Amino acid sequence: MRVLAAMSGGVDSAVAAARAVEAGHDVVGVHLALSTAPGALRTGSRGCCSREDADDARRAADVLGIPFYVWDFADRFKEDVIDEFVASYAAGETPNPCLSCNEKIKFSALAERAEALGFDALATGHYARLENGELRRAVDDDKDQSYVLAVLDHEQLSRAMFPIGDTPKPQIREEAERRGLSVANKPDSHDICFIPTGDTRAFLGARIGIRPGAVIEKSTGEKLADHDGVHGFTIGQRKGLGIEGPGPDGAPRYVTGIDPETGTVTVGSAADLDVSSIIAARAIWTSGVTPDGPVECTVQVRAHGGLAPAVATPIEVDGGPGVRIDLRSPLRGVARGQAAVLYAADEANGDLVLGCSRIADTVQVTR
């Protein structure tokens, strides 16, 4: 097969490309330039898409003996990922930009160009597995990225390759060393790639501006503080609330509600975060077939953690395909804008991705 290998400049994508070559495929490497003003160097494990990353990817391609190109997707990335990220926070949501990047850049814009150029598949360094066209968790639970890939539909997955999902990360680094890849010990990227400082609140504030509002105590309705914008808060947040001391019950306070229209941020106890049901929109069923009734599953609502047994029922949300997820046990910190990813409930197939949707609303536990 002709395979386009997306090479970020890190160890994972380098080894993924190497494995595609070793499997006998005709491989071409490509690095995506996603920043309109890339820096020369990365700052430790923060950020990506620097000129250093592009050079690292090129050196890896040279070692593998494959053609290598840099493709400019900066404008598309800004429009489909960064601008959407900012708008989502302004609307009181907590988005995951990796999902948008996978959905709209890597496996849409890039995959479409790859197909137009005659490539049969797109290989990436994601930690996930594809078996008989089904998306599954990676062998390495700590590195598993099936959550941020669950947004891909059946057709996109049919043209994808995840060559390293069957191997733990330490072994990937050892393999890179054996192959003579200089990125073998390069630090992993953390945080949000387009915010290299790691200061999300400052990044958003510079783009959204000041939109004053109030922090309100849920149990009493008392105003506790003023704030400069709802973009500085997310459901479940405990620190940086601008309030003094605990609540009336003597316990810590958490963000339990965000109203972007009034600018009101509501805080309450940890128990006020308990959610019994989730309403999610833009449902994608990985098999390509919508179930005709309720499905027993395990739902994950954050990239790392936030799992619970549940029953998912296909419904219509905002005029499109959605799902109602009734939890068998309550979850905390469920934020609008995040993905609700469904995995198979049975133990033998618990790593199998069933589908994905975006959290639009929640139902709190009644006490």
TrEMBL record:
Residues 277-359 form the tRNA-specific 2-thiouridylase MnmA-like C-terminal domain. It is found in: Cytoplasm. CDD domains: MnmA_TRMU-like. GO terms for biological process: tRNA wobble position uridine thiolation. Residues 143-145 are annotated as: Interaction with tRNA. The record marks H126, Q338 as: Interaction with tRNA. The active site is at C101, C193. It comes from the Bacteria. It catalyses: S-sulfanyl-L-cysteinyl-[protein] + uridine(34) in tRNA + AH2 + ATP = 2-thiouridine(34) in tRNA + L-cysteinyl-[protein] + A + AMP + diphosphate + H(+). SUPFAM superfamilies: Adenine nucleotide alpha hydrolases-like. One of its GO terms (molecular function) is tRNA-uridine 2-sulfurtransferase activity. Residues 202-268 form the tRNA-specific 2-thiouridylase MnmA-like central domain. Keywords: ATP-binding, Cytoplasm, Disulfide bond, Nucleotide-binding, RNA-binding, Transferase, tRNA processing, tRNA-binding. The keyword Thylakoid does not apply. GO terms for cellular component: cytoplasm. The keyword Membrane does not apply. Its EC number is 2.8.1.13. ATP binds at A6, M7, S8, G9, G10, V11, D12, S13, L32, G125. It is an enzyme of class 2 (transferase). Belongs to the MnmA/TRMU family. Catalyzes the 2-thiolation of uridine at the wobble position (U34) of tRNA, leading to the formation of s(2)U34. This is tRNA-specific 2-thiouridylase MnmA. It comes from Gordonia malaquae NBRC 108250.
